[in-house]
Amino acid sequence: MKEKGIIAEFKKFIMRGNVMDMAVGVIVGGAFTSIVTSLNTDILSPLLAILGGIDFSHLSITLGTGEEAPVLAYGNFITAIINFLITAFVIFMLVKVINIINDKLTPKTPEEAPAAPSTKICPYCKSEIAIDATRCPHCTSEL
Q: 61, 68, 74, 136: most buried, per Cβ within 10 A?
């Protein structure tokens, strides 16, 4: 009996819109990352190599001597940073365009006038009192 409750609860959790949206976002994000990686590896890196003569992917430092010496491939790290920056910029631009389109499609509601004040300040004791008061409840002065 308890398993049915847990299974039903899990099914309800999975079928929520935000969980499904997140799953779609992760899948699309993975595909988008491969596109940006290809853009960087296949297009931008060769162009940067022509302009600056440097291909980041081959930059490395060998730590030690011999065939078994570990290699610090910092060029791959630089490439990953460039991939991240390109991905972040493209996502930023997409969100910016979506927000602009959303602002144009959303009907604008007129701004409401501020509500009339419901209190005023007593000129004698400076206490806050009801707007329609004729006598201050704090200092008992007539208004």
A: 136
Mean pLDDT for 104-111 is: 81
CATH number at residue 10: 1.10.1200.120
Are 91 and 131 in a shared domain? no
Residue-wise pLDDT for 45-98, tens only, equals 777 667 666 667 778 888 888 888 898 888 888 877 877 787 788 778 888 998
Q: Which amino acid is at 17?
A: G
Mean pLDDT of the chain: 81
Tokens at residue 89, please? 């910029």
State how far the Cα of 54 lies from the Cα of 52, in Å rounded to an integer: 5
pTM: 0.47
The CA dihedral of 135, 137, 138, 143, to the nearest 10 degrees, is -10
Helix (H) or strand (E) holding 11: helix 2-14
